[in-house]
Design goal:
globular; 8 strands; about 45% helix
């Protein structure tokens, strides 16, 4: 691994350990998140959101991702195997439920400051906990962050422009109840690129594991012959 790649890996790992979620769940979902998050982080992933729904029985959906924002099926399986026994012991839900591990999806929630920087240039819709400029719902182009706030270039109609409405607005991330990407062609294209890169990385990791097992087996065979 090159020195620059090593530094990037260390930086990513450090960010994964230290960057908190600024938009979190209330109530029972928060309790589930407090149990799941340490386990997920120990595996090298990041918790995104927890959602509990009872439309078809009870489903506990846990969205997680790698530090680079990618997530493949094998990652979901890894997290599920680790979380299932922990939840069996902690018993956070007082009724039968189905545990579902998933990626955040293409039109994903944004929960950390780095999310708002990573997805700058894409459309977002945001709902704040308290009114800002008399509104709680906003939609527009995500420009990036400034301090602990996200800068949004608002979508407006002709009347807004004639009334002199601000083209951009700063929204404090900690005051958001929900923030997520809006599904667009550009967003789908970017998501497909990340997915392909993640799959290539997963295949390379499997090849490396097989190679190591093969070398270990050869070393053991040579040692037995020597005896």
């Amino acid at each position: 691994m090159a020195a620059s790649e090593a530094r990037q890996a260390v930086a990513t790992a450090t960010q994964n350990e230290t960057e908190p979620r600024l938009i979190v769940e209330p109530g029972l979902s928060a309790r589930v998140a407090s149990i799941a998050e340490p386990v997920i982080e120990q595996l090298g992933y990041r918790l995104v959101r927890v959602k509990i729904s009872g439309s078809d029985g009870c489903t506990v959906q846990i969205m997680a991702e790698r530090p680079d924002g990618s997530m493949v099926v094998e990652d979901c399986e890894t997290i599920s195997r680790a979380l299932s026994p922990v939840f069996d012991m902690a018993d956070p839900i007082e009724r039968a439920y189905r545990l579902e591990i998933s990626s955040p999806g293409i039109d994903r929630p944004l929960v950390r400051k780095s999310d708002f920087d990573r997805y700058a240039g894409h459309l977002v819709k945001i709902e704040t906990e308290i009114p800002i400029d008399g509104r709680k719902r906003f939609r527009g182009l995500l420009v990036g962050t400034e301090g602990e706030a996200a800068r949004i270039r608002q979508e407006g109609n002709k009347d807004d422009a004639e009334a002199g409405a601000a083209a951009e607005i700063l929204l404090p991330i900690a005051e958001m109840g929900d923030a997520r990407l809006v599904l667009t062609d550009d967003l789908v294209t970017a998501a497909l690129r990340r997915e392909k890169a993640a799959k290539r990385e997963a295949r390379a990791a499997k090849r490396e594991q097989r190679h190591r097992r093969h070398k270990s087996g050869q070393a053991g065979h040579a040692a037995n012959q020597g005896d």
